[in-house]
């Protein structure tokens, strides 16, 4: 009898899954997408590196590259790969990782896509210090790079002090920081131009790298030093990025959920350091830090990803260096010329779109 009654009610409704299981599935889907994005960017980076090393005016086959990397000497090809192409590709890779990660951390903490180190003057602070060291102190090599890092840090500290905290909310301090940074960038650009006018012909050639950003002078000692510094700094960036989900809720909500203001300043200082060491190695490669974060967010369905931004930055710099060296009319330009040509329209588009949505 009961069987007949159950049959008359039709097919049974599917059992409601456990709420915890639904929550687990909801949290797992973005993580799976994030992993797919990172895997795709890694493949893109490998393709860009392969094109940079294997193609160009002197092509190298994959078997020859493997033989060279295993230590076998191939006349002509070994020198071009080990002294020109591979160092240039690796320096572009490391600098791109640093610019991308630092830019995403800046933009995420300050909740402003314009708040990247190359827009608000951090990179120019490093450049100004390096140009001052070359022109006025007659320094070369590592001391110039060390002063570049110091210049970036002092610029950031000066901006933070000028933004202040009195009589303003945390959000207003963030806007102040961006405005002070834009003004500082203009002032630092003037300082660099003044120093450039005082340079002789030889110094002027050296300072060009600090004006546009270039990986054409890549050498293994610089690559090793930058790699060691990034091995230390990038994990700190990842740790600092853990506070981004709270920061992106807004300063008041973040503070209400227990995010102390000093953690925000510490995250910004970490971003300054990672960008400063990249500038010290390559000069200020324009707009990479600015573009990497928004591009990675679009790929990750609107969610900030520092790892994705670092990979986007690396793909941008390695690809732009290939274009600057082989595809641009005339060829052999600094990589910053190509990233600047791409980034300037992107900046105008971002300003226009934000004005329409304001």
Radius of gyration of CA atoms, rounded to a whole number: 24 Å
User: How far is it from the N-terminal to the C-terminal residue, by CA?
Assistant: 67 Å
Largest β sheet strand count, sense and barrel closure: none
Total count of strands: 0
**Overall helicity:** over 70%
Pattern of helices and strands: HHHHHHHHHHHHHHH
User: What percentage of the residues does DSSP assign to strands (E)?
Assistant: under 5%
Described by the principal axes of the CA atoms, the overall outline is globular
Class by SSE composition: mainly alpha
Low-confidence stretches: none
- Mean pLDDT over all positions: 84
Oligomer: single chain
Helix count? 15
How would you describe what is shown here?
76% of the residues lie in helices and 0% in strands. It is an all-alpha fold and 358 residues long. The N and C termini lie far apart (67 Å). The mean pLDDT is 84.
Attribute tags:
0% strand; single chain; mainly alpha; 358 residues; 76% helix
Summarize the structure.
Helices cover 76% and strands 0% of the residues.
How are the SSEs ordered, and which strands pair?
Layout: H1 2-8, H2 19-54, H3 62-69, H4 77-110, H5 122-135, H6 142-163, H7 170-198, H8 201-212, H9 220-241, H10 244-247, H11 251-256, H12 261-282, H13 288-299, H14 306-327, H15 335-357
């Amino acid at each position: 009898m009961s069987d007949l009654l159950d049959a008359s009610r039709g097919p049974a409704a599917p059992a409601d899954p456990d709420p915890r299981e639904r929550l687990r599935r909801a949290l797992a889907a973005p993580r799976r997408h994030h992993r797919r994005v990172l895997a795709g960017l890694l493949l893109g980076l490998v393709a860009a590196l392969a094109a940079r090393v294997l193609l160009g005016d002197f092509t190298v086959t994959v078997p020859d590259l493997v033989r060279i990397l295993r230590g076998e000497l191939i006349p002509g090809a070994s020198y071009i790969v080990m002294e020109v192409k591979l160092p240039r590709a690796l320096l572009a890779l490391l600098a791109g990782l640093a610019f991308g990660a630092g830019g995403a951390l800046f933009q995420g903490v300050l909740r402003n896509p314009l708040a990247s180190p190359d827009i608000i003057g951090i990179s120019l602070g490093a450049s100004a210090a390096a140009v001052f060291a070359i022109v006025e102190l007659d320094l070369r090599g590592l001391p110039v790079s060390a002063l570049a890092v110091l210049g970036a840090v002092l610029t950031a500290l000066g901006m933070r002090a000028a933004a202040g905290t009195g009589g303003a909310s945390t959000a207003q301090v963030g806007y102040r920081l961006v405005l002070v940074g834009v003004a500082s960038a203009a002032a630092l650009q003037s300082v660099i131009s003044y120093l450039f006018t005082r340079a002789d012909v030889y110094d002027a050639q050296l300072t060009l790298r600090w004006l546009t950003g270039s990986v054409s002078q890549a050498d293994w000692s610089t690559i090793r030093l930058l790699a060691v510094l990034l091995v230390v700094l990038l994990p700190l960036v990842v740790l600092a990025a853990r506070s981004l989900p709270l920061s992106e809720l807004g300063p008041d909500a973040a503070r209400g959920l227990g995010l102390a203001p000093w953690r925000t300043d510490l995250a910004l200082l970490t971003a300054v350091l990672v960008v400063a060491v990249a500038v010290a190695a390559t000069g200020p490669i324009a707009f990479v830090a600015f573009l990497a974060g928004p591009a990675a967010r679009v790929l990750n369905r609107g969610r900030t990803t520092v790892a994705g931004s670092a990979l986007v930055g690396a793909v941008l710099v390695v690809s732009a260096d290939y274009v600057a060296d082989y595809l641009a009319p005339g060829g052999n330009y600094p990589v910053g010329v190509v990233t600047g040509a791409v980034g300037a329209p992107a900046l105008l588009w971002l300003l226009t779109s934000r004005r329409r949505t304001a």
